[in-house]
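Q: Protein A?
A:
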Amino acid sequence: MNQHEWVPVAPTWERNPDDKELWRRVPVMPSLALNTVEMEALGPVAGRAVCVFGVGDGMAALALGALGARVTVVDPVQSLLDMILVRGQIIGVQLTYIQSELCELAGTRDDTFSFAYAAQVCQRIEDLNRFYAEIARILLPGGRLIVNQYHPFRRIWKQEPGHPQIQTSYFERRRAREEEDDLAGDPTAPDAGFGRFDYNWTISDHFRALSAAGLYVSAIEEVGDVRQKWEIPTLKGLPEQLLLVADKPWPSPQPSTP
C-alpha cells in the first residue's frame, strides 16, 4: 500500500445530520462509506466474498455490495440485520447475514472469505485475541482484514465543553459505561448503545492480538483530524480513525518426501 501523510475520513463521518437517507446514494457513491485508504486496501471486490462485522449505520456493507462483493453481515441484533437487508433490497444490493456474537461464528467454515471488514466494533469486544483468531479462521489464505476504529487517543477525554481534559488513562482497557453515556449523547457516535462496558484497546493491543492470530499487519494509517459532531470537547487536530490492514499468510510449502 502507498504511504499517506494525511487522509480525510469518508464523507459519511461529516454528513449533514438532517440527511436521514444517505444510504440510498451508496450505489453510485461508495466513497460515502469507505475512505480512500479502505478503497485502496480492498482493491477490486466484485465477486469476492466479504464478511462485514457489525451493522453499524449499514453504509459499508451496502457500499461493498454495490461494488459487486458477495457480502455477509454479522451482528447479534436481529433488528439491525433486518434494517440493512431491507435497505439493500430497496437500492438493489443483495446481502446475506449471520445473527451471531462477533467472536463466535461456529457455523461458518474455515477459509471462507476473501475479506473481512470491521468498523467501530472493537470497543464491543471483551476478548480481542479471540475476535481476531476467529477472523483469521474464516479468512482464505491470502485474505485480508480491514479494521477501522475511532482512534483510541480520542477515547480518553472528558465529555465537557472547552479545552480537552483527560478522564481516563489511555492504558485503562475497560471502562464502565453510564446508562446515558454514548460518547456525547449522539446515537450515531461510534460507541452508541454497545452495552455495559467500553473496551479501549491500545494500538499495541491490536498488533499483539493480530500477531497472535497469525495475521500479518501490512498497513497502519491514522485518518482524519477534524472535530466530529458527537464530540463535546474540541479534539480537532487529533487523529480521528485508526485503520489497520492485516493479511492471512499462505501456508508454507511442505517439503517433498524423497
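Q: Protein B?
A:
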Amino acid sequence: MKTNFTGDISDVFACLAMLGTSGCGFEHQLQSVRMALSGFVADNNGFLRSDAHLAVVYITDEDDCSAPADSTLYGGAVSGQDGSLRCSLVGHLCGGSSPPASEFSTPLGNCSAAPDGGGKLIPVQTFIDEMNRLRTQSVSVSVIGGWPDDVATASYAIGYDPTSSWSDLLSSIPICKSANGSAAVELRMKQFVDAFGAAGKIISICQDDFSNAMTQVGELINTTVECQ
C-alpha cells in the first residue's frame, strides 16, 4: 500500500472546509466537483487513478444551483423574495410545471428536478455523464443534505418561514429541521444520487448527531468497493 499523507486528515479537512452556512446563497455543489475532477484544472491531473475508488460526499443545506459562467440568473435581487428561491423556481418541477413565485404547497412526491435545468441551470444529467466517464475503478456518491426522513408525508412548500431571519421574504420552506438548523429540499442533488443506483445515497442533514450519517457513508463506500 502506498501512502502519500501521514498527518491528521481532520487537520486537512479543517483547512479546506468552512463550518457554517455563510457565504454565497447560490450553491454550486455539482459544478465545483465537476471542475475538480473532470480535467478543467490542470493542477488536479493525476488525482484520479484507474485502480482507485472515488468516494464523493456532499454536505449541504440547500439544493444545487450550478449555472454556466455567463448566466444572468444571479443578477440583482428580486423584490420580496429570498435570493435562493430563484434556484428552486428554475430548477424544480411540481406536477410538470415550475413552482409559482407565491405561497404554494404540494406533496413532495409530485416534485422533481427540471430535466433541462429550467433552461438556466446546468442540467443534472451533464454532471452524471461526466462522473461516469471518470477513470476510476468505482464511484460512490453520498449526499448529507436537505431530505426528509419520510418522503411519503413530506411537503414541498414555498412561503414565509417565521423561524428564519428573512421571515418577511418569500422563500423555500425547510424540508427538515433539527437542533443543528434547517435545510431546503434538494431535488437536483437527489436526481444526481439516484443515477448511481446502489452506489448512491442521500441522508438527511437535519440530525442532532451525525455519527449515524457518517456510518452510512462509510458502509456505502465499503460496499461499493467490495462489489468491484
